[in-house]
Amino acid sequence: MVDSASSSSVNKEPFAIQNNQITSESDQGYKKITSKDADATLKFQEEYDSQVPEITPQQEAKLSRKVCWFIISFAALVDLLVYMDKAVLSYASLFNYWEDVGLDQGRYNNINTLFYIGFLVGQIPGNYLILKLPVGRFLFILVCVWTIILFLNCVALHYSGILVLRFFLGLVESPIIPLLNVTLAQFLTANEKAASSPLFFSTCLGVTIPTGFIAYGVMFIKSSVALWKIFTIIIASMTFCLAILVFFFYPNNPATAKFLTLEERIWTIRRVQKTTGSAIEQKFFKKYQFIECLKDPITWLFFTAMLFYNLANNLTFQQNLLFTGIGGVSNLDSTLVSVASGGFSVVCCLISSVILLKVDNMSAWSNVIWIIPSFIGSILAIALPWDNKVGLLAVVCMSAPVFGLPMILTISWGFTSCSGYTKKVTRNGVLMAGYSVGNLISPQLWVGAPRFYVAWIIQLVLSFTAAPAICILIWFILRKRNIKRREAMNEDEKVGVIQDKEGNEVVVNVAALDLTDWENKAFIYPL
To answer: SS3 of 502, please?
Structure first.
């Protein structure tokens, strides 16, 4: 039994490892597991936790700034390059790419669809490898392979070759967003994770800013080499430089993070476990957590929301074609218009991050707030007369980037609204499967040029109305669960027991047990 002093210590600091032996789990009512099933950082904590004092408010503020700047910036850079790679064909269309390789609108749509077939196929093996491999090393391998694929685009001069390359690019890129999501959850507190998501993903919405300026500069190059090849080589070279940075600096988890001191690593693990109620990392596949994730109705509500949101995602890659199709906008000018569109989305992301940082539990309602511009834009795209060129151009700029913000919030919220490492990674995979299915369908909606009424109507009904409505439904369900948990919660539920190979039992924070949110009644769902 734990003596009274030990029990007091446990209740006061349940997230720090306590070196007290437990002889009876039933008497204490603690959750109990073996060390194999515990958080992967447990061994590091056992070795160094007793040497590290409690963090002061001043130290925590400094640590928070340091971790946020490094992790969010690094993850955002990776995300930026991912979306620049995706946008290569869209911008290449401005450099006679279609004429050189024999593309038309139908073939272009098929290429985008095949990318997401590869993206969908890659979800199961990709998320499994995230679970089994060090995330930093896995990311390095992925970036290297996708760099090679990008360079090969320069020699793919036929439709069939482009199809193959886009399929494999989708396959390789499929684990990237889930992997980055895992990294953010490893280092950031629950509040930091929610607030940083729009800031982090602003790179994918604002990808048109750097890409647009690069494309604008390439248009002035005088060369015998096709400009679309020069553009592709520039983007691929940037991805190669990213691979070097990932190899030397991207962390696997807080316990091995080179940019943190030993004390800061312990403090980071403590504060993340304390605020999220979840394990940092677990490298064993737990079948029961996988099954639980698939049985959880919240998983499938998130899946449906992601599918609906991404029925509109081709709008982002279609916008350069829409600009020129509307008329009165040259290829040169369309790159600058896309920059302005991206700038608008980045400003929205910054505002959203500030709101989420200042106001708790705003994920669901932010979905509603930030879908409004796209909702209004879709109505105007359908209603405005074709001769109102300025109005139609403004509508595309307003609709194209901002809907991505609710989608981003949904990805982050879906990941943080469950516990158990295998369950979280599985939820990640299911969400990205919804992302993939939506994007498989999205390119095929763009028929009936130049008005594309089918695409705009489907986006209005499903992407900009039904999807945020599903998020509000999730909010009501999770809020009801939280009310019941808070009413029934006691201090023992915040504490767990881990049994090592020698049979010794150690009291720890329940978050270190890597339990699911269904098992861990101390887990409070973020809203």
So the answer is: coil
